[in-house]
Amino acid sequence: MAGQRVVVTGAGHGIGRALATRMAAEGCRVLVNDLDTAAAEQVAGEIGAEVLGGDAASEEGVGKLVHAARELWGGVDVWFANAGIERGRGLAASEDDWAASFEVNTLAHVRAARLLVPEWLERASGRFVVTASAAGLLTMLGSPAYSASKHAAVAFAEWLSATYRHRGVVVQAICPQGVETRMVAESGPLREVLAHDGIVSPEHVADVVWEAMQDDRFLILPHPQVAKYYAARASDTDRWLSGMNKVQQGVEAHDERN
Description:
This protein is an alpha/beta fold. It is built from ten helices and seven strands. The protein has a seven-stranded parallel sheet with strand order 3-2-1-4-5-6-7, sandwiched between helices.
């Protein structure tokens, strides 16, 4: 990986920051991006990376980021599609919540792939890493827009892998449960659910990602227990849904007590 040209979106905080830091430590050339430009600049300064603040979801924003990487290095070897949002609660989630969730959590990946994959196919090499969530394999109670958009992110990553893996394009999906980020800190009673298998640090996620990059596995699971839940969901969906509903009832009971 030494010398690899790496772009990390949403790298001003949390998992993105940890990924950018780890890639730089491994000798990669890193371009840090975040909507929070000040945070992106701080991370870039700390790790000796390049920086471009701004939107990484819109067609224009993705285009600017890819263009910047090409201007700097002539191309991109690894794209960490890490930027993500969690907006709206239950059926009260607004049209704007739903639209924003799909723009950032799903369509940003589509737009980046459109620009990157043709170049990768020409040279038979490239890596696209999506930060999805265990919610993209299972669900996230209370957050329908997040759950649906993360499922879509995993589905798009699966499609990319199934379509292009024989032509040198490696696609991976990071699907953690609870990570010590702002989203988990602001999750209220759902924090207990997210903490069921432990809250891990962003640095732990980056370590697991680095390990997974050595064997190109598609699913990257910082919480290994997710594999068991995913299998249970597939093998007996009604039983799994019944179990999730019991968890939902527990959340509602907690809300009533408080």
